[in-house]
Sequence to fold (935 residues):
Amino acid sequence: MARMKLVLVGNGMAGMRTLEELLKAAPDLYDITVFGDEPHPNYNRIMLSPVLAGEQTVEQIVLNSRDWYAEHGITLHTGMRVTKIDRKNRCVEADDGQGGKTHADYDRLLLATGSKSFILPIPGADLPGVIGFRDIADVDAMISASGQFKHAVVIGGGLLGLEAANGLKLRGMDVSVVHIAPWLLERQMDEPSARLLQKNLEAKGLNFLLQKQTAELVRGESGRVCALKFKDGDSVPADLVVMAVGIRPNTALAESAGLQCNRGLVVNDTMQTFDPRIYAVGECVNHRGIAYGLVAPLFEQAKVCANHLAEHGVARYQGSMTSTKLKVTGIDLFSAGNFMGGEGMEEIVFQDVGRGSYKKLVLKDNKLAGAVLYGDTLDGAWYFELMRDATDVTDFRDKLLFGRHHVGDSGAGGGLGDEISRVMALPDTTEICGCNGVCKGDIIKAVREKKLFTLDEVRAHTKASGSCGSCTGLVETILAATAGGDYSTAPSKKPLCGCTEHSHDEIRAAILKDTLKTMPETMRALGWKTPDGCTKCRPALNYYLLCAWPTEYLDDAQSRYINERAHGNIQKDGTFSVVPRMWGGLTNPKELRAIADVAEKFNVPEVKVTGGQRIDLFGVKKEDLPAMWKDLSDAGFVSGHAYGKALRTVKTCVGSDWCRFGTQDSTGLGVKLEQMTWGSWTPHKYKMAVSGCPRNCAEATIKDFGVVCVDSGYELHVGGNGGIKVRVTDLLCKVETEAQVMEYCAAFTQLYREEAHYLERTAPWVERVGLSHIKARVVEDETNRKILAERFLISQKPAQVDPWKERADGGQKHEFTPMAALA
Amino acid sequence: MNENWIQVGRVDDIPRQGARVITTAAGEIAVFRTVDDEIFALRDKCPHKGGPLSQGIVHGKKVACPLHDWKINLDTGLAVAPDVGCAARYPVRVEDGRVSLSLTPEDGCPNR
Fold:
């Protein structure tokens, strides 16, 4: 069958990104032709400001070289403007500016005509020396003017205007910025932060003329512009005038073809225009009334559009939340959302003029609605995430303004970060990702050479921040500084993995709502893009299904990581370690003798006491595991699940039986808790502890669920972590009896099992959903607590079967024996 | 190519989306079965740090090494970018549900 024809009008970032996504999804579906009216291949328009400032070259910002088009069999026409769409005959006509016409037929047409600078309709606007700031030609004009003339005026004190002014100043011109509003960047900043910015830019030599309205551009003797006249009668000399007063969607072509436009070419959630054969993406588009001008939303649109062009037909674009950043070296500014406040809003403000630092957060209904940061923008990405996820900030509102680092910072992404300038001042050899040994220079090189824009792409290409994730903030900073991506790299919704468009929460909800009970069924119902998932989604789905249908779901061993499949921890030489369960850390001579016996019998090279109060036998060959488990099982041991996303240990101190300070029987309670919870699978590993008095020798306040006994009862603590990032628990509540401890523990554990994302420890989960959310369900609502506890106990019945004994008795034999032994 | 085929077992002996190990005098070979019942054989040693590929999660035509999550293509033995390296491939064939293997690895991969 002949391939369909796809024509792309507009050789810019949004259109080309769509093609790249399309080629990934369906490389052979179309013969592709691209028209661009600029003489260049696709380049990174965001980086025009650094090019103007002399920090990068045009060559460095090219995203798709001409070779790339050739390699992918794409016909590229540069310097050709499409002037006509014949919808009836499905054909476009392009003009090379010298009377040459080119035609191309299409089955699908993609319009990505972008936007153009808005030119003020004032006398003299058409004079030589008056330009916008949109493309390489404008930059060339500015660079050439800076070599011949002295006076530059930029009309417009928005992001683009300030970047143009900064670049022209660096090129040696005297620059004035004319702005109609009382302060700069009034759409991104409030007055106090804008004043700080102005001061900073004035120190760089820029001149500002605020609340000034331009009346006329004056023609000089040479015919070129020579001055600017204001409505109040003042005037300033100007050999170059850059209009940066806004952009307008470029819809002339679409309108001439009779497509519905209304401040942008109108599209639906699948990026389709009113003509179903014609799609549109990018700055020319009006989606749900909004025309976006930032790269991240455009890339989201590109992804959706490509999905439909590839005839997958499942993705929808539902709009984006955006944030902005100013690309002027040495100035850190971040803003997002509603930062001006208003009715029903509350503001938290921090201001230190001396240090040039300003932060303002706007809250609505205890959720972050907007933020402006000036000077220290390190936490911009975090605030943006809180806005996107509509996180209730009640529980850490007092520390919110001081940033993630002060809130606890249990998860990936933060803490290690630094201002962009300081990070970028680090030498290229600085190791950024300690897990994978990735240096700063490696990341910059990959971002430049592979044209990366998102954190996921950097991870895929360099592995930086792909393991423990604690360097995520640093990697994001390097990415932002190198690629010029704005902070809105976070899509409006985070899919579980590349196999699906759906988030963790959506998948969990669908499993329950649509009673999806097997993995193939779930993947089918939710439109999985891969035939059988990947290493990210399969273990997650297996857990979600198991949690949702504990008595029915048949565990899929092949979707479990080897440790959980073989019930031991794989070591770097391929051997396994074996940790028998010791209830509450208690043991006796008989058990110790049994462990000693197996250690000798199976030549265990190393025996070690673990941090969880039990004994680890290292270096066991996989084929020896079942026999060793048989001996341990005969001696009364069960698996310690030291290898699983599961209940690990319950650490205890000796308690009132022996300790002169002990207030309760902490050891006994620990044993009871462990007997209730052992064998349960959880989103991530799950550790508990019981301390017999507030001296807290069992370190209960860095556990997922910790009990601190006091004279009058038991304090229950949750969400602690002693790992990558230490986090002290939050106090859940205080109860009076052991029976209550058991019930609260079961309920809390079940809430975590049902709500957390797979591989999310309790610490980041508690921070994400908020302690109040957990208290409301576990402490304040007695009925709900009892229901949760009951659900936990129901799921424990099938879970509390010792996997070691099953395998010692011959189960899963294929896992432990070679298929064949050849001489 | 050496056409000495050795029978090593049945397709059904290998879990779907899983692998089994064949021990040989020259080291271990992993025999994989994909979700579509395709069978592949690779040297059971990740080109990165020698992790046992047979213990990894099989998805599509790839296996993820259990040690550091390198992804290895089952059909070529090549690591998925950005990682670089390969695990030697062994010829396999299936007849009447029986899997046979040649112990002479295919050319092109230094990881012996």
